């Protein structure tokens, strides 16, 4: 049994040496290390599917759907204060006449969108 382990260890070391020699001496375009570089960039699944498409010259049928993950809205949360609307002036009893003093309007050249009047309109549209 000890002789078998020694022979197995010798055989494994020869395989590793030969493989390392091939990886270190082959030109890059023929080298297996190019595969490592390509898989880091694009992924193993993309490379395999591209090869399948190239060999069959057909669209791949995916019975389980696309491998792409789409965003779901399960983790989407809203703050209720942001969803609430601001109260309209006529619902709160606030008068818009006194909202801005007329002296300030004249000094800043304030004009409403409805003409050259002072202040905001008294009733909303």
Structural category is mainly alpha
What summary fits the major beta sheet? none
Q: In angstroms, what separates the terminal alpha carbons?
A: 98 Å
Strand content: under 5%
Provide the succession of SSEs.
Answer: HHHHHH
| Uncertain spans | 103-112
Quaternary state reads single chain
Give the number of helices.
6
What is the 3D shape?
elongated
Cα gyration radius (Å): 38 Å
Mean pLDDT: 76
Total count of strands: 0
Q: How is the secondary structure organized here?
A:
Elements: H1 2-25, H2 33-42, H3 44-56, H4 80-83, H5 89-92, H6 102-108
Keywords:
mainly alpha, 125 residues, 6 helices, 0% strand
Short structural description:
With 125 residues, the protein is mostly helical. The protein is built from 6 helices and no strands.
Report on the structure:
The structure is a single chain. This protein has helices at 2-25, 33-42, 44-56, 80-83, 89-92, 102-108. The protein is mostly helical and 125 residues long. It has a domain at 9-56.
């Amino acid at each position: 049994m000890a002789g078998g382990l020694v022979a197995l260890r010798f055989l494994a070391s020869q395989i590793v040496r030969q493989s390392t020699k091939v990886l270190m001496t082959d030109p890059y375009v023929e080298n297996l290390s190019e595969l490592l570089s390509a898989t880091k960039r694009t992924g193993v699944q993309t490379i395999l599917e591209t090869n399948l498409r190239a060999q069959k010259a057909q669209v791949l049928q995916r019975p389980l759907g696309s491998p792409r993950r789409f965003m779901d809205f399960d983790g989407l949360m809203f703050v209720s204060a942001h969803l609430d609307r601001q109260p309209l002036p006529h619902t709160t009893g606030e008068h818009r006449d006194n909202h801005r003093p007329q002296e300030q309007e004249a000094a800043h050249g304030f004009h409403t969108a409805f003409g050259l009047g002072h202040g905001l309109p008294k009733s909303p549209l």
